[in-house]
What does this fold into?
Amino acid sequence: MIDKLVLYLQMPMVHYALIVGVLIALCSSLLGVHLVLKRFSFIGDGLSHVAFGVMAIASVLQLSNDMLLVMPVTVICAVLLLRTGQNTKIKGDAAIAMISVGALAFGYLIMNIFPTSSNLSGDVCSTLFGSTSILTLTAGEVWLCIVLSAVVVLVFVLFYNKIFAITFDEDFARASGTEARLYNLIIAVITAVIIVLAMNLVGSLLISALVIFPALSAMRLFRNFLSVTVCSAVLSVFCALAGLIISILAGTPVGSTIVAVDAFAFLVCWVLGNVIKRRN
Amino acid sequence: MELIRAEHLSLGYDSHNIIEDLNFSVNEGDYLCIVGENGAGKSTLMKTLLKLLAPTGGQIRFDGLKKNEIGYLPQQTQVQKDFPASVYEIVLSGCQAHCGLRPFYNREEKKRALENMEKLELTDLRNRCYRELSGGQQQRVLLARALCATRKILLLDEPVSGLDPKVTVEMYELIAGLNADGITVIMITHDISAALRYASHILHIGEDIFFGTRDEYAKSPVGRYFTEKMGGQAL
Amino acid sequence: MKYKILTLFTAISFLGLSACGTEAAGPRTGGGTQSVSDVLEAGMQEEKKGTISTPDATSTPTPMPSADAADGQAEGEASGTAAEGVDVDLTIMSATMVYSEVYNMMYTPEEYVGKRVRMEGTYSFFHDEESGMDYYACVIQDATACCAQGLEFVPLNPEKCPEEGGMVTVEGTFATYIEGDYTYCTLREATVL
It folds into this structure.
């Protein structure tokens, strides 16, 4: 077991996977707290399905670098979705559901009508569940991920106080003169970036888990925003690492293993949270 | 000094008007109560004053009042009920509007947050979680946050809803105290007796619109209808 | 007959080889590298079961007991449990890792050329009627069981190959060759173990 792990840890593809996995887990959990509290848990799902649809189009167009198309389109959708969600809650909810399933259906349809590779089910499966794409990254993709993650973390730290203010009470923030619209836009953009990156790690069906589980777990244990954010980041990174290593050792699918570990962590936090409550 | 003047204001959603031709003004140091039935457009008016909604007609002029000099005490939202945040974090976030693009709070803003917490007797609750506080304590936290945002004018949207009678009185006294310190107050309330007790001016909206001082209101037909129903206890 | 061709295509697309994951990861070598096993899989459907043992089986020398074991040590030390003289031993890896490693072989073959590879997978055989060529392949699946990759091998001891669809373990030297427009990956001087 240990010598197997040592063997794997010497392979460059495992290094890449660990680096990218940790970064994506970190970024998604940071924003997760905001999205969960704003009742936008499903935004991850919606956007990842959009990304899936755009990827289908990109592959039909035979783009050599599909990121160039996927990233901007997903960002635009994020901006539109988060904007409609601001004023009318029900409409925003329905809009997310509509775009999400619509993009999924059209994406699959396009891939089916214009098959570009001989392995349709494989393509679809790996995009939806992220089978092993995290282990098959090129150095270029790893660098892209490092740079984008660094930008996301930097933006999050610099705008932390503003994000808190508009998460807790957007009306107050706007009324007292904070540029809430601008910050909402920034949040929408980095949400989209993270989700496109995260498709590599867990595939588009499982991204929501990466966004909501760490935040929900952290909320069981902590009662102020800073602790919740930090705890959710730590938890998410830990679960991603654990999930990756388990899947490599046991040969289980990467995405679902990570999500399973996240879910297990939530269970532990929930029990711990109840124990703490009873003690007080 | 005049802070706010509304001229021929029409309010509503889309093209449907709830209120038409509304005129009133607020001077520095005033305590204006906005009263009226449910659905009369009190909250819509408040949101228009806060520039969260655009009026459907007419205009509001803000003289000598900058965008980041408004303190707002909103009604509790669903989001806040289970929000993991400490009292200090929330109060401090009131200073956000003064930060501009600066990412972090400076020493002065932190000091201001602590002062306002002291003023509203929240210092002991500093690290407590907002969602675990009582209703009255939560309102005091939000009031402290509003005070961090402004030294000039407070807009309060039903600050006592859901509070028990004792805490309600405490809250009213607190607001009256702030007004006595020179802060202009605009408050939405259902409670006409409280309006008659504390306000300097009253704006009644609904089928009949009335704007004037408290005494004028008590003598007006709309005001008399209410005061008689309550047996004149307020005065 | 039409139905047969259809199933044939399904088989090809199912074992679409090295195509899996391209959506997420993007093509590496301009889509050039293709494994031979799509051809092989096509054969699987049509081939008469009788021709499994190849005609030139007799002329093949006896399996070399990993002759160049000594100089294969280059990276062998990394893998404590790997077999002697094998650089990339897929038989000791988990399903996830095997799949990823083979995927990487397809997309960055230049990094693997010359290495001794040992792998275990489903045996598959195809005889090309036109060119008279025989193709042997070892097919592996990923953990989600939706993707499969195959690697062709040129066996030194084809008589040891199992029935089609049976498990096979081969060890050979990784190489690439160009046929038509595509670059193919293969295991040369492969021994069936």
Observations:
- The interface with chain A takes residues 47, 50-52, 66-72, 74, 77-80, 83-86, 89-90, 93-94, 96-97, 99, 103-105, 127-129, 131-132, 145-146, 149-150, 155 of chain B (CB under 8 Å).
- Chain B has nine helices and nine strands.
- Strands of chain B lie at 2-13, 16-27, 31-36, 57-62, 70-73, 153-157, 184-188, 201-205, 210-213.
- Residues 66 and 152 of chain B are 10 Å apart (CA to CA).
